[in-house]
Structure of Phosphoenolpyruvate-protein kinase (PTS system EI component):
Amino acid sequence: MPVPTVRGTCNRTGEPVEGSVLVVESLVPGMYEALVASSAVICAKGGKTGHMQSLCRLRGIPVMRVAAAELDDLVGEVTVRLDRQSVVLGGAVPQARAAESPVTAPADLGSICAVIAATSDVRSVNALDQRVEGLDTFFIREEFLCLTAGLSPLDSLRAGPDRAERYGAALGAELCAIAGQLLPGQRLVMRLLDLRSDDAAHITRDVGVDREPNPELGLHGARWLLDEEHYPRAFRALRAHVREHLGAAAGQVDFAVPFINDQDEYLLLRQRLDLPEDLPLAVFVETPAAVHAAGAFCAAGASELFVGTKDLTQFYLAADRGNHLVASSYRMRHPAVLAALRDVVDAGRAAGTPVHVFALAVDLDHYVRRLPADGFMMCAAELRQLARRSAPPTAHRPLDTGPQSAIGAWN
């Protein structure tokens, strides 16, 4: 098939320009509107699995990193060459390459969980010519719902109980819209808010955000949920909205706890959110402590375990996932990481608790061969690509290539 490329006019304004190539030094949540309007992003900082880069992956928007000194050269029309991991000045046409047959197909993944960022992701996956067998779950982060709905969580939650309830109802409306796109047998899981202070600072307008020396290891995830005064009220309003508008189908919507270390935090959070005993609550395993507590989570009633390999890798290897300078140390196939993943899978299997392991497309074959997981998580855009590549091949006409002048490349 043709080499994947993206062509467009450089957008350096930070404002949304549909179909443009966004050129910025680094990606931050405040650029969300400009980002989702873009066909590609070129930046100078950030790792491939950083938070905003992950959002780009969910939306199928390629991100290319170049040296900071080269950003000034990117003006006018450019072509992002994904095959060479480079940027071509001008509108060069790529040369064709032979189609590759993936080793792993969707049928090999067991239960499939597609990680999404918006309602359109559900529609695009379910609209594939051949339905993806095994796709039974869609997974979305609360902070991504906030970005798509234009909500500022801290502004809402800290403005008092009434604003907190309106915030929860607004999230409930977003979940109901997504649930309306589900096919029979599919469900939706929302990961509760996990907003780091550095990201919160970019989208919070009315209240102060504490500056933390190390936000990755700071007040977010389960520890923040246990601390934030009005979050339980917002969550009750969210659940009430879902029950009222989905009725019997409300059971299609489940929830997961992020950035949690042990069963004590899990039980305290269930109590604080006033969850009835029959309401499932999953755990998102992404710290070494959570790996060691996997069996205890199951014993405490966790409905399932989702393993976040991107954060887990950075914590196991002490390599910042958002720092391209340590990219060579950030290895999602490192033996220590794989051992941790196997421990979680084994704990879940022993307890009869389902386990889904997140995998980037580039690591999928490696993980499937080594991990007897019940299922895998994939970005919706990468799942679509896998499904299309696994379909019967079609012929493509080779394209000519013209003169090229490329700058920058991933290490």
